[in-house]
Specification:
Helix content: 10-25%
CATH architecture: 4-Layer Sandwich
Structural class: alpha+beta
Number of domains: 1
Distance between the termini: 29 Å
Shape: globular
CATH topology: L-amino peptidase D-ALA esterase/amidase
Order of helices and strands: HEEEEHEEEHEEEEEEHEHEEH
Number of helices: 6
């Protein structure tokens, strides 16, 4: 007997209802996730009040940065599952450490060089005197994570720096955001478990869900994975390892079970993202949300959290919803939003020489 999609059960339990917004489809309508081709517009992470997003894509080669700002700050957390992370300011997010609220998160290409983009966001916030209050003035709290894209586009010397972060912060707005081959996802690729010559284009995507009582959970994810992206509702590969003729997609589960995946150089991949919610959470609760959100990554990328990935998810909880949160429900929604965002990232990506996009493989 066919298995009932978990989505249907989750939707009924969580009473998913539309987010009001011009040009945004109801996030409970998930038909785009099961339809080949380009998905319809949907609510994104900026559906959470106080969250804005700015992106810069460099012109010299495909790379860039994405900045997520939290107006007034948000309770922050992070969970790192991959074996090769590139991050900054993650230790302060531990529940037992003092600083509680985060002002911005930076996602960047450019490998460890891309962490320089954080300096530009620090400068932007410093000019506005935004940050953790100290006797010497406000200190912006800006954690960051990077992905490896130096081999894409033939110019590894071109990588996002402080100007990229500053400009992205300047551009940060609510409402519609560009997805696919932009910002931190500009040089992202997926499906490298059998070598780069069979890989495809990754990207950045965003999605948001809401419940009938006003809880909103959104995610933005830059997808640069060793593994193949699948639709978890059908098990169908969407973008990833191609067959040797380059025309179709390999079954990632079969590759795993055959034990034929290649040993890859470390630190050359990584899927990174941010979950935002209007729920009122402690740092410990936000950490649990980050942990549960990784389920969305594991459902949608096969394999994920490998030694060659630095998979990292941040959480921002604005607390504007004036009631205690059901942490389990928030975490379940976070996993769904992350999964949706990953699918959007690859379905909206544009191909590059040697890296076809999902829309190019029929």
């Amino acid at each position: 007997m066919p298995r009932q999609p978990l989505l249907c059960v989750a939707a009924s339990l969580l009473a998913v209802a539309p987010i009001v917004g011009a040009g945004l489809a109801a996030p409970g309508d998930r038909s785009w996730a099961q339809t080949p081709g380009i998905p319809a517009p949907t609510a994104n992470i900026t559906a959470v009040p106080g969250i804005t997003v700015g992106q810069v894509t460099l012109t010299e080669r495909p790379t860039g940065c994405t900045v997520i700002l939290a107006d007034g700050g948000a309770v922050g957390a992070v969970d790192v599952r991959g074996g090769a992370p590139g991050t900054a300011e993650t230790d302060l997010l531990a529940p037992d450490n003092t600083v509680e609220r985060v002002n911005a998160i930076v996602l960047s290409g450019g490998s460890a060089f891309g962490l320089d983009a954080r300096s530009g966001v620090m400068k932007f916030l410093d000019e506005k005197k935004v940050g953790y209050r100290t006797s010497g003035g406000a200190v912006p709290i800006v954690p960051a994570a990077i992905l490896y894209d130096l081999t894409v586009g033939g110019r590894p010397d071109v990588r996002p720096g402080a100007p990229c972060g500053y400009e992205a912060a300047q551009k940060a707005t609510a409402g519609a955001i560009e997805e696919g081959s932009v910002g931190a996802g500009a040089g992202a690729t997926v499906g490298k478990s059998m070598g780069g010559n069979r890989a495809m284009k990754g990207g950045i995507g965003s999605a948001a869900l809401t419940t009938g009582d006003g809880l909103i959970v959104g995610a933005i994810v830059a997808v640069n994975a060793v593994g193949t992206v699948i639709d978890p509702r059908t098990g169908t590969p969407v973008a990833g390892v191609r067959t040797t003729d380059g025309r179709r997609l390999e079954d990632p589960f079969a590759l795993v079970r055959r034990g034929v995946m290649q040993q890859l150089p470390g630190r050359e991949n990584t899927t990174i993202g941010v979950v935002a919610t209007n729920a009122r959470l402690t740092k410990a609760q936000a950490l649990k949300i980050a942990e549960m959100a990784h389920d969305g990554m594991a459902r949608t990328i096969v394999p994920s959290h490998t030694p060659s990935d630095g998979d990292t998810l941040f959480v921002l909880a604005t607390g504007s919803l004036a009631r205690d949160a059901n942490v389990g429900s928030v975490g379940a929604l976070a996993a769904e939003a992350v999964s949706d965002a990953i699918l959007r990232a690859v379905r909206l990506a544009r191909g590059l020489p040697g890296y076809p996009a999902a829309a190019d493989i029929r």
